[in-house]
Amino acid sequence: MPGRRELTVSLLSGSTIVVVPSQIAIDPLTFRDFIGERQLSVIFLTTSLFNATAVTCPTAFQGVREVLTTGEVASPLAIRTVLESGGRPERLWNTYGPTETTTFSTIQLVTLEEAQREKIGIGQPSVIFHLGAKVNFCDPYEAHFDANILGMKNVLQIATSGRLKSFHVTSSIDAWGPNGLILGTRKCLEDDTLEPNSKGLPYDIGYAASKWTSEQMVRRARDRGLPTAIYRPVFITGDSNTGAGNPDDFFALLMVGSIQIRAFPCLHKQRMEYVTVDYVCNAMRHIASDNANLGQSYSLVAPDPADSINLEDTVDVINGAGYPVEKIPYWDWVKRLQEPKYQDNPLMPLMPLLQEKVWGDLTRFETSRDTPHYDSGNAVASLANSPEIGYSPFSPDQLNRFLVFWRTKGLHSV
């Protein structure tokens, strides 16, 4: 069914909207008569209904100015049947939708020549959001290559083919690597070059290296003229209001696993930069709504560094939420996790991350120490006129909402 925008525009332009009763729509001959009697000029229907009508009564759309199908993959056979009949519509469109933002986001006019192909096109988008990636803190770079590198290559090919399209992509703060420890970096500006940070990637996780590589690909495309915005969130937690969040990400496993053993590792000068998922989504949506924001990168972190919780302060948040945990030396924490009574602890699958020494006596988890300040000047400036999009610092109340959500869904217990 059309969304509010489609309905409003149609009504304001003087059109009449006719809803076809289901008992009529499922009978192709009755449907044909209804179209003629009501003199429908534009018909928007599901692909399944179009296909069923095409088989029994391919001339049903005779005299209709525009016919738009949506919801499923178009059938070349059904479309050819209608276009080759003596009662074809003036124009037949295949659309892509419904989507999260509108009833359909792309549209393509289907000709008889197009209908001879194995697949019917859906038109060219004007904007692309690439938000997906493989995230595994134990797998090497090679295991992330297909999803994060080849995947980015394929999406960039779509973005740069045909007419010019704006490209919005989520990278990660991990693209900087452990530059605080390895390079002595104290501050990262949003559009600083990434190249020097490659020196620290061998001491970080494979995911971080894949994000460095994929973001470099995007930056080069941007330098060559692709209108691009890069969003670089940190550790995304749950929704600040409902607590809904990913139960299997590192943040969730670290919180639940540490609460279960009543201990948290002592990690000096190391921050995780927590940010709620609703802040990330709202900030990205607002920034992307203005093409003037293209051509820049945006670090979605705490706008005020004073609101950024480091790992030492995380203990206070957990205790404040009502879960007593003690801060103990890092390797004592790892050993406690390995005690037989904690064999089902959710952190156990992450032992390669927690145990493998890569920089002297420091593990991959520990190389994030001396965390630099991630500047967010571009993001702050773009959100200046939207005070309703506010950053929510990690707090005991927030943690409790996450824990309640996981417990209610039967995902984690503490």
Main features:
elongated; 414 residues; 16 helices; four-stranded parallel beta sheet; alpha/beta; four-stranded mixed beta sheet; Rossmann fold
Give the topology, please.
Elements: H1 4-12, H2 22-25, H3 28-38, E1 42-46, H4 47-56, E2 66-70, H5 76-83, E3 91-96, E4 106-109, H6 112-115, E5 127-130, H7 141-160, E6 166-170, H8 179-183, E7 187-188, H9 206-223, E8 228-233, E9 235-236, H10 250-261, E10 263-266, E11 274-275, H11 277-288, E12 297-300, H12 311-320, E13 326-329, H13 330-337, H14 351-355, E14 357-359, E15 362-363, E16 373-374, H15 377-382, H16 396-408
Parallel strand pairs: 1-2, 2-3, 5-6, 6-8, 7-16, 8-12, 9-11, 10-13
Antiparallel strand pairs: 3-4, 14-15
